[in-house]
Design goal:
The protein is α+β, with helices and mostly antiparallel strands and 161 residues long. It is built from four helices and seven strands; from the N terminus they run E-H-H-E-E-E-H-E-H-E-E.
Amino acid sequence: MHAMDRIRPYEDRDADACLALFDGNVPMYFARGERADFVRFLARQAGAGTYLVVERGGVVVACGGHTLEEDATTAGFCWGMVERRLHRQGLGRLLTRARLDACRQAGTIARVRLDTSQHTRAFYARFGFRVERIMPDGYGPGLDRCDMVLALDAPDARAPV
C-alpha cells in the first residue's frame, strides 16, 4: 500500500472518475458494450455502501465492491478495476483484500462469487477463488468469461502479499 492510498465508500461525486477507470481498461479487461451496465450500476447501486474507491493523493485510482445475493450468504464481487497505468503495483490486491474483509465483516456471507476475464483469472486464483465455468467469448470476441467462487472459511482462502 502506498502511503497516500485511502479506501473509502463510493460517493456520487466519484462517478466520472470510475467511468474513466473503466474506459482506460477497455478493451483488454472490459468490453466497450459493458459501459452502459456500469453507468446503471453507479447510478442505482454503488451508493449502497458496499462499493469502494481507492484514492491516491486524493485521486480515485481503483474501485470495486460487492453485492449481496438474496440468500444473504453469498456475495458477488462487482466492477473491480484499477487505473491502467497503475496495474501491477498492489492496488488490486489492496482492493480485493478490502472487499473480502467487508464480506467477512458482514457476518452472514459464506462465499463470494465473481466473473472475470481470462486476463485476471490467475489474479483471483491467488486469493483462493476457484473456476466454476469458462464461457469462451462470454463478454465479447476474444474476451472469455470466467465464473469463480471462494468459500470464505476455506483453508486456501488467503490474502496474498
